[in-house]
């Protein structure tokens, strides 16, 4: 239990009862977990300073011990109280950030030899059991401060996905083999040929019979349609969908010239 002897030696002159011994031991376990003591009492004080040592006057009251702790990374603060009830010592720990509470109750005589309060080698009984009890019952709610040294940070920064020699590289399909799909986030991706008819892309619902790929030699809608539209009725270059056949005469019979046989038959 490295460090406990030095801590105990620094306060041995002020230890006057078995409860002091247990509070000193719990303080040591908290310091080992990555915390330092700020001072006495429930509220912060102007002279608070983080220290691994117990503050002056820490055992001024044998019925109630109150100590405050702060993590080494300054992200966690909690309050520890120890209450003496007959031969029992009850610890209560509250994390001020999360308001999580844990407690520990123990029989002082099970862990302290009251006849050797000033002798470190003889004062503790069942020290390993006491340490396990403090860690499992009082300190589980205490978040362990994150420890990250310079070497681990550099290793993390220099670690790249392709630096592992055993890593199987990701297979990327050849760009030339990928279909030329339109970008799904483009503003005219859906119905683009209709929304932007001048984009040059194929498809769409807008059909110009005069520009559908069929030969229309010599026909200019701006010159008018004989017997239908006078010249100049269609502006030059305008898009025009004729409402009738181009030219006055169509080859073959007119299907609308005569009604079919039985035209007046309602069951036809």
TrEMBL record:
InterPro entries given in the database record: PI31-like, PI31_Prot_C, PI31_Prot_N
Bias kind Basic and acidic residues: ranges: 145-157
GO cellular component, one term: endoplasmic reticulum
Chain ranges of the PI31 proteasome regulator N-terminal domain: 13-139
Keywords for this protein: Acetylation, Cytoplasm, Endoplasmic reticulum, Methylation, Phosphoprotein, Proteasome
Any GO BP: proteasome-mediated ubiquitin-dependent protein catabolic process
GO molecular function: endopeptidase inhibitor activity; proteasome binding
UniProt keyword Membrane, yes or no: no
Its job: Plays an important role in control of proteasome function. Inhibits the hydrolysis of protein and peptide substrates by the 20S proteasome. Also inhibits the activation of the proteasome by the proteasome regulatory proteins PA700 and PA28.
Chain segments carrying region Disordered: 135-200, 217-268
Organism: Salmo trutta
PANTHER family: PROTEASOME INHIBITOR, PROTEASOME INHIBITOR PI31 SUBUNIT
Family, per entry: Belongs to the proteasome inhibitor PI31 family.
Localization: Cytoplasm; Endoplasmic reticulum
Name this polypeptide is given: Proteasome inhibitor PI31 subunit
Cleavable signal peptide: none
Domain spans labelled PI31 proteasome regulator C-terminal: 173-245
């Amino acid at each position: 239990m490295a460090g406990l002897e030095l801590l105990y030696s620094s306060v041995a002159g002020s230890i006057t009862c078995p409860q002091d011994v247990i509070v000193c031991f719990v303080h040591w376990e908290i310091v080992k977990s990555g915390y330092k003591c700020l001072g006495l009492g429930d509220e912060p004080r102007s002279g608070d300073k983080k220290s691994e040592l117990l503050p002056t006057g820490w055992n001024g009251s044998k019925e109630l011990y109150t100590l405050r702790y702060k993590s080494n990374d300054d992200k966690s603060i909690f309050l520890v109280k120890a209450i003496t009830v007959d031969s029992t010592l009850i610890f209560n720990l509250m994390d001020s950030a999360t308001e999580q509470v844990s407690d520990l109750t123990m029989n002082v005589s099970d862990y302290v030899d009251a006849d050797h309060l000033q002798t470190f080698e003889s004062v503790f009984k069942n020290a390993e059991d006491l340490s396990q009890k403090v860690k499992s019952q009082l300190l589980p709610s205490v978040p362990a401060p994150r420890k990250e040294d310079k070497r681990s940070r550099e290793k993390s920064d220099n670690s790249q996905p392709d630096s592992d020699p055993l890593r199987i590289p990701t297979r990327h399909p050849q760009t030339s083999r990928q279909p030329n799909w339109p970008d799904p986030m483009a503003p005219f991706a859906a119905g683009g040929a209709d929304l932007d008819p001048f984009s040059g892309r194929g498809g769409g619902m807008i059909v110009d019979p005069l520009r559908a790929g069929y030969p229309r030699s010599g026909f200019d809608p701006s010159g008018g349609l004989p017997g239908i539209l006078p010249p100049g009725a269609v502006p030059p270059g305008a898009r025009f969908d004729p409402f009738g056949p181009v030219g006055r005469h169509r080859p073959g019979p007119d299907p609308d010239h005569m009604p079919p046989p039985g035209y007046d038959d309602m069951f036809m």
